[in-house]
Amino acid sequence: MLFRVGFLLVFVILAATDTGLAEDPVAATDEQVQFFNEQVVGILKDNCLKCHSGESPKGSLNLTTRAGILKGGDSGPAVDLKAHRDSVLLQAINFEGYEMPPTGRMSPQQVASLTRWVEEGLPWPADLAEIKFEHAPGPPEVNDETKQFWSFQSIKAPSVPVIAGQDLHPIDAFIQAKLTEAGITPNGPAKAEGLIRRMHYDLLGLPPELDLVRHWTQRISQPDGTLNQSAITELADLLLDSPHYGEQWGRHWLDLVRYAETNSYERDGAKPHVWRYRDYVIQSFNDDKPYDVFVKEQLAGDEMTDATGDAIVATGFYRLGRWDDEPADPKLAFYDELDDVVTTTSQTFLGLTVNCARCHDHKIDPIPQKDYYRLIAFFRNVRRYGNRSDESVLEASVREINRPADSNAYQQAVQRYENELRDVERQLTDIEKLIQSDLQDVERQEMQHDMNRVPIVSKRKGTLLTDAQVRHYRRQFQRLQRLKTSAPSDMASALCVKEDLRSPQPTFVLARGNPHAEAQEVTPGFPEVLSPPEPEMPAVPEGAISSGRRTVLANWVASADNPLTARVMANRIWQYHFGRGIVRTSSDFGFQGTRPTHPELLDWLAARFISSGWSMKAMHRLIITSAAYQRSSGPNEAASTADPNNDLFWRFDMRRLSAEEVRDSILWANGSLNRDRMFGPSIYTDIPDAVKAGQSRPGAGWGNSGPEDKVRRSIYIHVKRSLLDPLLESFDAADTDITCPVRFVTTQPTQALGMLNSEFARKQAGVFADFLNRSGGSLEDQVGQAISRVTQRTATADEIQRGLRLMDELKKHDGLSDQQAKVYFCLVALNLNEFLYLD
Amino acid sequence: MKNFCGRTRREFLWQAGAGFTGVALTAMMAQDGFLNSQAVAADGVTEWTNPLAPKTPDFAPKAKNIIFFYCYGGPSHIDTFDYKPGMIGMDGKTIEVKTFGRGGHKNQGRIVEPRWKFSQYGECGKWVSTLFPNIATCVDDIAFLHSMTADSPIHGSAMLMMNSGRILSGHPCLGSWVNYGLGSENQDLPGFVVMLDPRGGPISGAKNWSSGYMPATYQATVMRSQGDPILDLSPPEDLAHGGQRRLLDTLRKYNEAHQSTRHDNTNLAARIASYELAYRMQAEAPEAVDLSQETQATQDAYGLNDPRCGTVGRQCLLARRLVERGVRMVQIYSGGAHNDDNWDAHGDLENNHNLHAGETDKPLAALLKDLKQRDMLKDTLVVWGGEFGRQPTAEYEKGSGRDHNSYGFTMWMAGGGIKGGVSVGTTDELGSRAVDDVLHVKHLHATILHLLGLDPNKLSYFFGGLDNKLVGVEGAQPVWQAIA
After folding, report:
1. Sign of dihedral through CA atoms A257, A261, A263, A266?
2. Which residue of chain A is at minimal alpha-carbon distance from B207?
3. Exposed (0-12), middle (13-18) or buried (19+): which is B135, by Cβ within 10 Å?
4. CB-side neighbour CA atoms (13 Å) of A519
5. b/e string for A226-241 if b means 16 or more Cβ within 10 A?
6. How far is A480 from chain B (nearest CA, A)?
7. pLDDT at position A779, please?
8. What phi and psi values does residue B169 have, to the nearest 5 degrees?
9. In contact, A674 and A712? CB cutoff 8 Å
């Protein structure tokens, strides 16, 4: 300390001397002033002043005043007027000693300009005291003011507006109040046929049969143009009871939790048993599992005292992300994995981008960096997904779950399965032994990865191994792959979270997010700006396999007192019904997110969601029975002039089918969709060789499903991060690396090419034509039927004539047969805008 | 007000128009007066500007297009362009040197002396090994970056870094950024094209040309130099003679009837237009890939008839034809699949590099000369290199194989505003790590964006709560020493 004081003293004396010099600058010429203003200031601002200005500049060096430059900082004066060349400033920008700026060398012109300025003796405008430099505004603090932000307030149901003389659905009362204020007359109700189609796609992701449309149209349409609400309620109930409801709404959830079935990176290996999580989600929606329970199971199902198999499977939530199995920096990879969990958890459940506070305080929201690491602390004991090998994944992320009651049958199945595994491994190693001595070091290393085994063995064909041996090896290898993916279902295992409590680790704030720069220690805690309770960590009993911390987190997230959880989910439900949320940025309820167009309505819905016992189906019923949902999507010039963005819900927005809906609807239209087979391990569609050619081992990790499996619903298609079904990809399926709250809806010629020319499209058009043939009927009837199958309405005479004309022309000019012409007409039907867009 | 995923309604229009020929799509619709009739943006506030036309860069660009010749697997810098005379005679000596590759961290190793002789070339006197006798004749047009570093010495993450700036998957690739920033000048071809080695794709496959969190419109289109150039491009054989036109006309009539009562829905119009664009592409793309239009002399120069380098020759020639037609970025993968099918010389260094250099030297030199002779080199930026280099020491007890090295490696750039005949940065006397003017992948990316007229520290895309940049939040300077 004494030393420091002394040092400071010397420094002050030196500084005083320098100040004397600075107060007597050489008078700058006009040209020099101009040069300073036009060149120097800009360079300093762009490259230096972000750090070297303000009250506590880096290295104590302030470059905003001439005096400051001459006085210098911890390394002495920045510029030496007597020996320009030796100036620290010039050395630094030439990367001699210091290397500045840290982003890399400045351009030669910039270096030349600063050099000239230094050499001329830092000419400075006489009337300029200091260069004005405005720092980007600092992050908002957690204080009484920022705590007042709308989404951080506890949820209270506002009273429903009373519209004189009208007895409105509560949703419509909120919406009508705003429309009235804006002087907008909303659209009337949709046509019954359109509404029935809308409801089917909305709740099931599939279209209705034409006779169902007719039946319900009769029930719903009323002579005065209004719709029969009790019939609509009845239809909604019917659809909500369908097992396919969970497939449609579960898919939305899978987008949010970045659901994928492989790990990305070099091997992009398959995640074991991951499909059970998908099935869990579908089943939970079908069961109308209360959302608070759904949340708790995913965050901490394993810690529940009566943890069911389902609750274990639910924690697969933690295991759906990317996994680098050979990271360059394992510690960084550990925190990257935790970051993935924090990102997904905070955005999906809370609508907060807490992840932005990993390296520094959140720049826009009042979320200090400490809050990020307090959230990390809840997950600190969670084991990494694995440690390099497949076996390590089984060890760290897989558990056996509720076995079937008949333990005998189970034991036998286990026995059979394990015997078979042993047998196939023995056959493989028998052949591998024959080439062991011939293996190069590099190959021995490669052999550790399954995917390299066949290529390395095959290389010895004709030398150490006979053709037959290699063939046998290949067959056995395929058998092994099959075994690995099709463990008997009675040997139930789940991909799940596990903790490591052998030596519980403290959690630290990491300076600049650097895992090697541990700073202040933190305990688990919730974002402070939400004024949360201070969490109490349970005592961890001897021999516990889990810390109980995640239960504390889950209970807080899934609490009715949490200001965000119910709001965020009510908004999501609204978004998936209407195409956009009341808050459009449905995973960002922070300062940067869009404000709700109808804040009172959102709060009312959130309160209702909680009071209904967190029932999602109750919310669907509520929304579907509103006039807002039932409105026509047609044009309305006056309204669209006043509110072109439809902020006020004066109409229902048309929407394009999602990627999965496009594929499922094609298969539905031609009668081949196998929608009865639900659940279970994922299936493989036919991906063209040209697409597989992009893989380092074309076809690796992509199996071949039987014909009945290939036509199952898209939610059952294997989600391989590095290989996507081109049809789903081009229609904007969710990117699986990061949580996806809203899908893109692009329109691009690749979609047209795929829908016209792909093998899939042409094949399905062929199946469609056969379907029409089987139905009998005249050609006119068949054309009409095809149009009905894609539009869910009766075809007009004009439409039928147009189709017949096309077939005639194709036969006449292109020499096509009746059947071929019909196939191409079917292809046209599958490309109709009306097929892909819902009113 | 920003939207969470950048999906305001205006963005929807932009998505409809950007990316794979999307720019063209919107441009086409604009010509039809369809989009121009919107005086106000869909959000009702901002004045509407045509998002589909090529965007204006931040400043005057030096390069318009980029051809990235990607040597997958990691070519050895000390055996190619980073001359290490001090290693001569050191073969087999065990020395202390810190290395980090797939074999982990090591503190010593056995030197593998560079296996090829070096000579000086050009006015700049650049030392180049006998692996690249033809490229050696172009050194006066090339800037070598000898002090490159990357965050990972493991293929999977290192490739993602070279292509997207991050070691985590899920981020958009350079080509996506370029098309996002500049749009495409081309009406009927994709803006970002990738060509693969016929032996297979690189590891992680499509992740290397994915648009990550940007819409799929910005991802690359894989193009083949033989056969059907683009997936699903060819109409069915029996519709090839006018049948498809009949089919599309019928489709259009159905769609127009559908639209008549929904006339305000621009998405429906966009989808109708997209079919016309697809139809035009079917004609344009095969023309672009028709190499028989080139003279015999050109074909020979690229080595099209040389069995060793015919494939790369076709790809290089096709790349020139594509940039000629306004394709913004072409990426060619030299090497594919695994092990010695690419530059990943863990086993026999000589066999491996003789093979891959032999396949690429002649076509790549021909490309540089052809571009120059057509006066295209001045605005076509050619980039060469892989995800990392290789270690000075042997990976195993025996043999010449080298492990990965991300502590120091070489990339080079030519054309498009690059200063020829310069070498930036150095590695130590063994090439084990960069020591002077240390460069990171982000500086390479910053240089590329800068040459294309984009400010690397301003080009950003809002996602996940923050403004993401290719060069990262901290920013990066271009490599000024390499810029003319």
Report:
1. negative
2. A722
3. buried
4. 12
5. ebbeebbeebbeebbe
6. 22
7. 96
8. -75, 155
9. yes
Distance to chain B for A701, nearest Cα, Å = 12
Q: Which residue of A has its CA nearest to B346?
A: A442
Residues of A in contact with B244 (CB under 8 A): 756
A90, A96, A101, A102: CA torsion to nearest 10:
-170
Whole-angstrom Cα distance, residue A71 to residue A69? 5
The series of mean pLDDT values per 10 residues for chain A, 839 residues long, is: 39 39 65 92 91 90 92 90 87 90 91 92 90 86 94 95 91 97 96 97 97 96 94 97 97 98 94 95 97 98 88 96 94 96 97 94 94 97 92 91 64 82 90 88 79 86 90 90 71 89 91 95 96 93 92 97 98 97 95 94 98 98 98 95 94 96 98 95 95 92 94 98 94 93 89 96 98 94 97 97 97 95 98 97
Q: Tell me the two tokens of residue B207.
A: 């992740």
Residues of B with CB below 8 A from A101's CB? Answer: 477
Number of H helices, E strands in chain B: 10, 19
Is the pLDDT at B67 greater than 90, yes or no? yes
Q: Do A635 and B204 touch (CB under 8 A)?
A: no
Task: Indicate yes or no: CB of B16 within 8 angstroms of CB of A738.
Answer: no
Alpha helices in B289-403 (DSSP H): 296-301, 310-324, 349-373
Exposure of A188 by Cβ count < 10 A (0-12 exposed, 13-18 middle, 19+ buried)?
middle
Angle at alpha carbon of residue A164, lines to A163 and A168, rounded to 5°: 45
Q: Considering only CB atoms, which chain A residues are within 8 Å of B278? A: 749-750, 752-753, 756
Model confidence, pTM:
0.88
3-class DSSP state of A674:
strand
Closest CA in chain A for residue B344: A442
Contact A658, A702 (CB under 8 A): no
- B239 to chain A: which residues are within 8 Å by CB? 814, 824
CA-wise closest residue to B252 among B267, B264, B236, B268: B268
Q: Which of B147, B203, B214, B232 to probe by mutation at the A interface, max A CB count within 10 Å?
A: B232
> What's the pLDDT score for residue A138?
82
pLDDT in tens, B15-57: 333 333 333 334 434 433 333 332 222 333 223 233 335 778 8
Which of B4, B339, B446 is nearest residue A585 as measured by Cβ atoms? B4
Task: Encode burial over B152-177: b for 16+ CB neighbours within 10 A, e otherwise.
Answer: bbbbbbbbbbbbbbbbbbbbbbbbbb
Residues of B in contact with A93 (CB under 8 A): none
User: Which residues lie closer than 8 Å to A653 by C-beta, 6 or more apart?
Assistant: A578, A579, A580, A633, A646
Which of A268, A595, A757 has its CB closest to that of B235? A757
How far apart (Å, rounded) are the C-alpha atoms in residues B224 and B204? 19
The tokens for B293 are: 């239009």
Tell me which residue has tokens 């992050």. A139
Check B243 against A347: CB less than 8 A apart. Answer: no
Give residue for tokens 């005998």: A408
Out of A730, A798, A828, name the one closest to residue B216 (CB): A730
